Amino acid sequence: MRVALTIAGSDSSGGAGIQADLKTFQALGVFGMSAVTAVTVQNTQKVYDIQEIRPKIVHDQIACLFDDIEIHAVKIGMVSGIELIQAIAKALKSVNPPAVVLDPVMISKSGYHLLKQDAKDALIRYLFPLAEVVTPNIYEAQAITGHDIHNTDDMKTAAVDILNLGAKKVVVKGGHLGKDQATDILYDGREFNKLQSRRVDTKNTHGTGCTFSSAIAANIALGKPFFEAVTLAKAYITGAIEHALSIGKGHGPTHHFFDIYAKAGLI
Q: Which of 37, 210, 211, 238 is catalytic?
């Protein structure tokens, strides 16, 4: 059994964060483990508050897992403060980790700042050099590079800039461009690849970023090369959005087990 570790915050509504990550790992045939960085107070409508876990506890969660278990991929999600970022970097540097997929989660759909303003530079300094893949959306890529993004050429420029900050490979997610097609730009330092899918008309998109990055990590854990891993993850998240669940009064979650439910005749 292949194993993946998510280092991320807990979403009490179950649609994003470590809950989405673990569901994604399991759906794709990978055993999932977690190191919790924060507990959030949130539902489908809003993030109300965040309580960070002590950095030493986060560090020790990671270290003890690597001390015992062979891990084939790591996904990093919400890390809100400088000390947490440093603790994660210290833990990963001490264990010679496998491929790391870093999702630079910055702002929730409701506008809550999940990454403290003074922590952005620390994220770049300490975690980008450890990342095999960084997966920003348009807004995150703009915040990281300081440049506006209006089209796929701008996305390519942002991907190059982000790779120059220390990442080995980049996926700039273009879902927020608002076009008929959801377009992602992939860059491995040598060539670009463009992935497109039909935009699904639904408000139920809670946790899409977490799910997509976790699917990339799961496919890497299964031994897939970069472009294939992201292509498979794109197909998975598209299906999860197409079968999204109308749960709650706000943005419902994607359906992480849509394929299993379909095979069982439940959808």
A: 210
